[in-house]
Design goal:
It holds the Pfam family BSH_RND_rel. The protein has six helices and 20 strands. By secondary structure, the protein is an alpha+beta fold. The relative contact order is 0.17.
Amino acid sequence: MHKKKKVKKRLIIRNINKLFIGIIILLYFLSRMPPFFSQATNKTYIAEYGKIETAITTEGYIVRDEKVITSTSEGDVILLVNEGERVARGQKIATIHFNDLDDNITKDLEIINLRIENIKDKQLEEHLFQTDIQKINNEIETVTQQIQDLIKNGDYIKVGALKETLLILVEKKSIISGEKSLPGRNLEQLERQQQNLQEKVSASVKTIISEYPGAVALGRDGLEDLLTLSNLDYMTLQQFETIRNSLDNDKQQDDETNIRIIKNHQWSIITKLMQEDILGLEKERKIKIRQQGDNKEYNAIVRNVIQEDDDNCIVVLDLTEFMEEFYNKRSITFDVIIRSYEGVMIPNSAITEHEEQTGVFRLDVNGFARFVPIKAKGSNREYSIVYNGSFDEKVNNETQRINTINYYDEIVVDAEKINIGERIR
């Protein structure tokens, strides 16, 4: 009986302890409620990486160091390299076939060339003749066996093509061995016939040779002589509008019979801007551009700013970085990034002044607002980019390292509504 009373007493004490702990926890949460409601009017912001920029969207025209090397509209152009591929000076890049050339002429020229070569070197190459004959005999034997196999298998369609090959091989053997009347002709006769056949071949096919090293491009728009790197500094607003009208009227001659060589990766963009948009675009200043629809940025230099009236001006930008298919583009819509800042991004409403120093209210581990100085790199209407960790500042003619906010610090958004030391959460 006595033991039962002791057990009951222990249970009562244990329950009282649990109730006491529960009351403490409840009081703690109740103590946190005022700051919680206070945060409804004093929201906080987590300082993270950001980027702000001052940019102008405009339309311009690409200018290249290029040369149209052929513009014939007759014949079929066969490109020997890929478009955009770089070629060397003197390299064959295309052939133009003006009309159909009889295959027999090409074959006859091949035979004549072979016979002339053999006659000239006959005394020195007598042993080579036997080697050539043996080689041709082996080829004849191989083709003959192939024909026999095709006939045996009933595949008569391919027999005709092999028969033509066999006749050519027999003809070559006759020439080398001197079995036909052709070797009876003297060298002078053969050379006259060679020249005649060569003229026919040359008249039917034109080989295009690159006069400059550079990248190959097809097509043209008729502006290659006007839009050159050398005359951009003399461009007028009237000429700019003429270019625009020319492209708007779709006067391009973009076909594969026009071949251009882009001499190097140096190129320019010419655009028209209003006077209020050119602030910060001083001559020789380095900026960045970004093609509309693309996040990639390209380095550019302001080559010239041409002012003709009080409202508009022409801006010339020089670039050297390769842009995909820039060799075939003329019009381009792009952003001129005049200024760009990266770092810790905070809202401007979080910035305040305290004792003649600019800063923000950062929350400490207990949720109290503590003033921390900051230094801005750049700002727009809504946000500022500030230094991370620390920044240098001159105090009494001495440079001092000032500690500032870091990434992921929690700061008060509306700094004007709170005081230093106020508890936010």
